[in-house]
Amino acid sequence: MKCLGILAGPRKGHATDRLIEAVLEGVKQSGGEVEKISLYDYNIKPCAGCSACQMNKKCPIEDDHHIILEKMEEADSIVFGSPAYWSNVTSEAKKFMDRSASFFEMTAFGPRRKKKKPSKIVLITTCGAPFPFSHLMGIIPGAVGAMKVFFGRMNAKVHVIYAAGMMDPAKSLPSEKLMRKARDLGKSL
User: Which residue range is the domain that position 99 belongs to?
Assistant: First the structure.
């Protein structure tokens, strides 16, 4: 089983990245093959709104975006993590999602992924606001909702992990209980 981890946050080694790593560690413990990338390491330009991707099944903008889609095509499962910024995903995550229409087929009900891969998705988000404010203020639900709109259109089982109260990026780390949950989820992929 091949699992692709995608970090959509700028801080490597911090809460979102650590949760991605924990899921990938679980996948490795179960004998799976893993790869992790960061969207911030790629040159991804914003969508031009030209709709060429819907007609030609390929985005005409020349940058690194296609490299990530190719990796997603090969993956049996995907772990996608974005910290919550203003109750949404990061701008890099949004830019990536906006450019990915060619990964789907257009149907009467909008874009759908009809292929069998990836079959499992893990969505991860973190935020500074502590629970329950992270939810009452719509921070975690907003970010998860944005990811589910995109990844929910795939023919895949979707799991969600979140960590609230990560106010100080240098000191705030997910609890060991949450890290264990992430590793166990990775083992089940």
Answer: 2-188
pTM over the 0.85 mark: yes
Cα 7 to Cα 34, 37, 55, 74, distances in angstroms: 13, 6, 29, 17
Domain count, the chain: 1
Q: Is 180 in contact with 143 (CB distance < 8 Å)?
A: no
CATH number of the CATH domain containing 141: 3.40.50.360
**pLDDT tens-digit map of 2-19:** 999 999 999 999 999 999
Query: Could you tell me the pLDDT band of residue 85, with boundaries at 50, 70 and 90?
Result: very high
Residue 37 to residue 95: CA distance in whole angstroms: 16
